[in-house]
Every structure is written in C-alpha cells, then in structure tokens.
C-alpha cells in the first residue's frame, strides 16, 4: 500500500461528504455514500456528520487507524446535479473499480459543472410562481404581476448572495422586494385576486429542502442534523414572513 493512499482516500471522502451536505443531500445519503466508497478502497470508515463539519477516521484491514481529520462543509447551495453525480460516481467506484485518481478527477469535474443560464433560472422560477397563481384562480394580470415580482425578487436574492450578505437577510429583502412590487402594481392595476398574488409571488423562497431533509433525518435517527435543518427552515420562514408583513405594512394592508 502506498503510504499516501490513506491520506488521498480520506481527503476524497471528506470532500464528497462536504459537497453532498452543502448541495442538499440528507444525512443518511451522505453516510451511505462515504461507507460505500471507503469499503470499495478497503477501509473501514468511522464518521461524525454534522451540519457544519464532517469528522472522518479510516482504519485499514489490520484495524490500524491510518487517517483522522475534520473538514468544514461549504455554504448551503442546493445543487442536485452534484448529489446525483456523486451518487453515480460511488457506484462506478464499486462496479468499475475506479482508481483514486479517476475518482478525484470526477469530483473536481462535478464541482465546476456550469450552472444553467441566470436568465433561464429567473424566468423559469418566475413562471412557476405565476403558474401557481393561475392554479389559485388568478387571471392574466395577476399572473403577470406575480411573474415580474418573483423575477425581480429572486434577482435581488442572488445579488445579495454574491455580496455574501447573511442568507436570512437576503431572504428578508427578497420577500420585501417581491411584496413591494406586487403592492405597487396593485395600486396601478385593478385585479380581483390581489391577496393570492401576494402569496404566490413569494413561493420561490419557501425552504422546501431544509424541511424535507429535517423530516428525513429525524426519521432516519439523525436527530441533531434534523433539528438543525428544521430550525434553519423556520428561520427562513420567519425572514419571509417579516419581509411580507413589512411590505404589507408599508401599503397599510395590515
């Protein structure tokens, strides 16, 4: 065995775990993926997976500790292309016996995969919100208002993310911006379902992934991570509500 092999293997496993955590994977998926890859390379893995860091210890076939390290996870940016790509990679390692170098190259490739064009993301998200408005009884005017408000609100949220503004403040200002646009247009145009427009315009901010992972983690017995993700989801919900209420207060609607 190459004396650097445990270090390379451990570093690869920590990178995989950190990427999965930051991309929106639940704790059980991270645990199974790390174990699968470690077993394939002939190591026994002991790990502690938290929301902000991952601790990993590797033992060789002689039960000797050969690697022990802790790695902080990255900022939470949902990316299911990375989640599915790493899952696929882990099975390739098992079935095709990929070398550590090949596995590392694939991880690096996944990290730099290009995102969808920004305008496409903004447009599709805004269209989704306006579609919910239509399903809730909104007409063409309401749908147009929701589309514009969600488009601009998400743009504001993305810009604040680029400037590394606190994520909760980013959600708050996005919700406020969306509500101000919806209310401002309500003063220019008369439409029936203005309340529904306010509600559906901010649907893009709903923290679905934290709440889903919260439930999944708790059911799998990963209670600590589940509670942390649940609290994160409630904090985001509070920021959304605060932005919405402040916007409504400005227009004397509350």
UniProtKB/TrEMBL annotation:
One Gene Ontology CC term in the entry: plasma membrane
| Keyword Transmembrane helix tagged | yes
Q: Does the keyword rRNA-binding apply?
A: no
Query: Where is the protein found, in the record's own terms?
Result: Cell membrane
Q: Which GO terms describe its biological process?
A: succinate transport
* Domain Threonine/serine exporter-like N-terminal stretches: 12-250
Alphabetically sorted, this entry's keywords are:
Cell membrane, Membrane, Transmembrane, Transmembrane helix
List the GO molecular function terms.
transmembrane transporter activity
The main place the protein resides is membrane
The membrane topology of this protein is: Multi-pass membrane protein
InterPro entries annotated for this entry?
Answer: ThrE-like_N (IPR010619), ThrE_Dicarb/AminoAcid_Exp (IPR050539)
Membrane spanning segments where? 139-156, 168-190, 196-219, 231-251
Q: Give the family this protein belongs to, as stated in its UniProt record.
A: Belongs to the ThrE exporter (TC 2.A.79) family.
Q: What is this protein called?
A: Membrane protein
Q: What is the lineage of its organism?
A: Bacteria, Pseudomonadati, Bacteroidota, Flavobacteriia, Flavobacteriales
């Amino acid at each position: 065995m190459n004396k650097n092999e445990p270090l390379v293997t451990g570093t690869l496993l920590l990178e995989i775990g950190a990427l999965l955590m930051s991309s929106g994977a639940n704790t059980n998926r991270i645990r199974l993926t790390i174990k699968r890859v470690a077993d394939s390379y002939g190591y026994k893995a002991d790990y502690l997976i938290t929301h902000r860091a991952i601790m990993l210890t590797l033992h060789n076939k002689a039960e000797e500790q050969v690697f022990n390290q802790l790695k902080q996870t990255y900022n939470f940016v949902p990316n299911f292309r990375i989640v599915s790509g790493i899952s696929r990679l882990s099975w390739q390692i098992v079935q095709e016996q990929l070398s550590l170098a090949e596995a590392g190259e694939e991880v690096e490739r996944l990290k730099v995969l290009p995102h969808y064009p920004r305008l496409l993301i903004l447009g599709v998200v805004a269209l989704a919100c306006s579609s919910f408005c239509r399903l809730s009884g909104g007409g063409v005017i309401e749908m147009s208002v929701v589309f514009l408000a969600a488009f601009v609100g998400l743009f504001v949220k993305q810009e604040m993310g680029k400037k590394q503004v606190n994520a909760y403040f980013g959600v708050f200002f996005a919700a406020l911006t969306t509500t101000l646009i919806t209310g401002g247009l309500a003063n220019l145009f008369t439409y029936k379902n203005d309340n529904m427009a306010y509600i559906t315009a901010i649907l893009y901010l709903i923290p679905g992934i934290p709440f889903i992972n919260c439930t999944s983690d708790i059911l799998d017995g990963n209670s600590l991570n589940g509670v942390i993700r649940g609290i994160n989801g409630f904090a985001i919900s509070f920021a959304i509500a605060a932005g919405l209420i402040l916007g409504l207060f400005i227009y004397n609607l509350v």
